[in-house]
Amino acid sequence: MSRFLLEKHRNLPAYVPGDHEEGDGFIRLNTNESPFPPSPAVREAVDKEIGRLNYYNDPDCTALRQALSGLYGLSPNQVIAGNGSDELLYLAFMAFADGTHPIALPDITYGYYDLFAASLGVPLVRKTLREDFSIDYRDYLGVGQTVLFPNPNAPTGLALPLEQIAEIVASNPENVVIVDEAYVDFGGETCLPLMKQYPNLLIVRTFSKSRSLAGARLGYAFAQRELIAALNTVRNAVNLYSVSRMAQAAGIAAIADNDYTLANCRKIIEARDYTTRMLRALGFEVLDSLGNFVFAKPRAMSAGTLAERLRERGILVRHWDRERIRDYLRITIGTMQEMQALEAAIEMIFGRA
Ligand code: PMP
């Protein structure tokens, strides 16, 4: 540890991402990426942009925000783009929370929130998920704190209905409610219809999942104009140019080819349904996920052992050795072919093939 590192940073937890083996023939069902490459239109757009890399990118992401606002029926000043939704979430932490302004969130959720909080000294108020892993929306009513949850939640895939989110937002009028809709395109219900009514609602989204652009690092968020302006204020002080030319071009092209995204989402939903049935038939307990992943508990062996055995067979899935969830695996939904390969591997491991 460098002696120059400030004391306050020395105990920062490390985010442990899923393994990133590439090109080794691994089937990657561990990082909730899309198994489909970006649309051909994206490739073309990025290719064109390369010749302009000598010029700085548009810090306001004007064309991209226009494309997004057009698709979702908003005005461009209700949209901000960022370097992955992670950047926008971090900016939201910076903008709305600090040592004396905590954030209320589920105890089992997306792991990076913990790191944002640790690096900014933001206390987290963790609300325990119910026994069935669902969020009890009543835990967030009138808390008078910034509220944050993914909808659907990760790694469970369970979602809150719009009416319950509306109650959370309405009951905390002096605080921002951040709904992370990273996985909403796979059958979830967006809370976009609530935005007009509530100036304290921030909806964060990403191109990483349904739009096949995880490696481009592109996220976006929707809110009323003032809240977006607040995020721009903090962003402009940190990294004005955080969304590269190539990411902007990729995003614009991906929005223009929305049919490609919709078709891929349908394929993922179909493969998710197949996987849920298949795992249940193999004796797993499987939550009804609305994400591009399932959260599943094997009964024939421990989840950790099964993850190891699958890795030996070239299939990567996610396992956390953590209280309450160590019996579960989070399995990203890939192509139908990949899910059938998973099925065959599990049958072999269970000695059923
Ligand atoms: N929110 C949730 C719930 C996630 O699972 C992820 C990525 N795994 C993100 C946000 C961040 O996505 P990105 O930074 O790639 O947009």
Walkthrough of the structure:
By secondary structure, this protein is of the alpha/beta class. It folds into 2 domains: 10-37 and 259-350, Aspartate Aminotransferase, domain 1, CATH 3.90.1150; 40-256, 3-Layer(aba) Sandwich (Aspartate Aminotransferase, domain 2). It contains 10 helices and 12 strands. It has helices at residues 40-50, 62-72, 84-96, 112-120, 162-170, 225-238, 245-256, 258-281, 303-312, 336-349; strands at residues 27-29, 79-82, 103-106, 124-127, 146-150, 177-180, 201-206, 219-222, 285-286, 293-297, 315-317, 329-332. It has a 7-stranded mixed sheet, with helices on both faces. Strand 5, helix 5 and strand 6 form a beta-alpha-beta unit. Helix 8 runs parallel beside helix 10. The chain is globular and about 60 Å long. The mean pLDDT is 96. The structure holds 4'-deoxy-4'-aminopyridoxal-5'-phosphate. Residues 32, 84-86, 110, 150, 154, 180, 182, 206, 208, 214, 219 line the site of 4'-deoxy-4'-aminopyridoxal-5'-phosphate. 4'-deoxy-4'-aminopyridoxal-5'-phosphate binds next to helix 3.
Structural class: alpha/beta
Shape: globular
Strand arrangement within the widest β-sheet reads 2-8-7-6-5-3-4
Our measurement of the CA-to-CA distance between the termini, rounded to an integer number of angstroms, reads 50 Å
Number of strands: 12
- Which residues sit in consecutive blocks of at least 5 with pLDDT less than 50? none
**CATH topology call of the largest domain:** Aspartate Aminotransferase, domain 2
Report the C-alpha radius of gyration, rounded.
20 Å
H/E element sequence? EHHEHEHEEHEEEHHHEEHEEH
Please identify which CATH superfamily of the largest domain we are dealing with.
Type I PLP-dependent aspartate aminotransferase-like (Major domain)
Distinct ligand kinds? 4'-deoxy-4'-aminopyridoxal-5'-phosphate
CATH architecture of the largest domain: 3-Layer(aba) Sandwich
* CATH class call of the largest domain: Alpha Beta
Largest sheet: 7 strands, mixed
How confident is the prediction overall: mean pLDDT? 96
Q: How much of the polypeptide forms β-strand, as a percent range? A: 5-15%
